[in-house]
Amino acid sequence: MAADPISKRFAASLLSDLAAYARTGRVGPTLGLLGTAHLEAILRDWRFWARREQIPPPGEWTSWLILGGRGAGKTRSGAEFVRAMALGHPPYAPMPVSPIALVGETYDETRAVMVEGASGILGVHKWEERPVWSPTKRTLQWPNAGNLAPGFLRDVVGRYVGTRLGRQELDGELIDDRPDTLFPRAVVDANRVAKPPDDLRRIVVAVDPPASSSTLADACGIVAAGADGFGNAYVLEDASVQGASPAAWARRAIGLYRRLHADRIVAEVNQGGEMVEAVLRQVDADVPVRRVRATRGKWLRAEPVAALYEQGRVRHAGTFAELEDEMADFGPDGLSDGRSPDRLDALVWAITALIGPADPKIRRV
Question: Which end of the chain has the smaller Cβ count within 10 Å, N or C?
Answer without folding.
Answer: C
